[in-house]
Automatic annotation (TrEMBL):
Every Clp1 P-loop domain range: 115-315
MF annotations from Gene Ontology: ATP binding; polynucleotide 5'-hydroxyl-kinase activity
Domain Clp1 N-terminal: 11-100
Matches recorded under InterPro entries: Clp1/Grc3, Clp1_C, Clp1_C_sf, Clp1_N, Clp1_N_sf, CLP1_P, P-loop_NTPase
Record-annotated Clp1 C-terminal domain positions: 391-485
Any one GO biological process: mRNA 3'-end processing
Keywords from the UniProt entry: ATP-binding, Nucleotide-binding
Protein name, UniProt field: Polynucleotide 5'-hydroxyl-kinase GRC3
One Pfam family linked to the record: Clp1
Coiled-coil regions listed: none
GO CC annotations, alphabetized: nucleus
Amino acid sequence: MDFALARTEVEIPAFHEWRVETSRTGVLNIKLESGTAEIFGTELTSNINYTFKESMKFAISTYHGCKISYTTTSPLDLEYISEETILKQILNLHLSIEKNNISNNNSNSRILIIGPKDSGKTSLARTLSSYSLKTSNSKPILINLNPQLSHFTMPSQLTACELYDSLDIETTTFGETMSTGPGTGLYRSQIPLVKNYGLESFTENLELYKCLINELSIEIDNKLSISNLKGNIIIDTPAFNVSNAKIIQHIINSFKINIILVVGNERLLVDLRKKLTLNDKVHMIKMPRSSGCIEKEPKYQRELQQKSIKQYFYGSNRCQLNPYTLHCFTTDFLFLKPKELDSSNMELMDFMNGDADDDDNDDDDYDPFAGNDNDNSKKKLERNWKYNNMFQIVDDPQETDLMNVIVSIIDDKDLDIKKLLSSNDIDEKEKLSIINKHVTMSSVLGFCYVSGFTSSTKKLKLLVPTPVTTLPGKVLVLTQMRYHE
């Protein structure tokens, strides 16, 4: 049978959803024939072909009923209509949030989404962001604190993005990144604020993870205070459990959270109520887990990461890019890589350094609702982080360090690297601390991919998404992400 020529029509009743899993090699084209429909809160436009390539899992939902048609170049791995949806609960939640904002003089809600692995946290964050964008005059900010995901950028990063246009439903990265340029395709590009973590799991370096959360919250607060924006802040997270109560408390304090959504785990909700120290302005709400959530295999998760990296350099289906090759030398840059320290190793190092009583920068003494935003930001900036536990200098990077590695380019315009490294007045430990502090406080300018390296000459071959004669920064951080053409 020629699947490419066979157009199939599907009727989806109101408050139902059509769940789809595409094949790894197929191309699926979908068109909305009548009615209204959406994918994770982003509405479909009638008579527009939406193309989904490679392996993807998603659902088309409808509140009023709709008819869609589709063609595919190979059979779908799975497709069925489900009546077991949480559409009503999500809609009621969204309306309650908007009503609460209005009653509080149009202030923004700061929403933290917590739940176990593959419980639908990301889908909920995406849907609430899309609804907030459509129904209010403000622009929501979608924040990703899960290094394994690729929200608008590469995996292994923490991001915050102010949404001013519909999220792209055809990509795995939520939308085109800054590399695609403004005004291209059907959607304008979303420009995220990116903090370099470089590791895949938040547990691999809690000190760095908490510090970046703190710095991200400060920049968000500064942005909101300068522009006087009132959009909701919606935060997606890794699979936290009750043992991660301290890091959850740190997120609540840093971002001044007032709504906590616990997805698909009532026991977690009960345990967190006992563990967390919350102001009476903070509301904890249980959200049901969608029956459409499935457990992602590690192989599928890796495929999504590789796909997002490819999209960064080569573009999406609508807007293809031609990446450029840049030749340079390792001696032109300062290379760093994040330290891999699990919580037990960090506690041992703190004990050996005499910092055991510091309790890993405990935030219990910090009241997120005390004073104004400027006071809070100042207090957070003055916290004493263990910067030497975050990144380490790679003095002489070898082929095993560089080949096929994704590298973050750090904004270093306010740091004279050569002068700092050559100074005899500062010891090596203090130099590392200064560099690490600068990296955590700076944003990522972009990424490059090491496609070649010659050990004898120290010559690098870098793949970059835009035509440049030199990289915009001299500080490069080697991430755990690797890409193979």
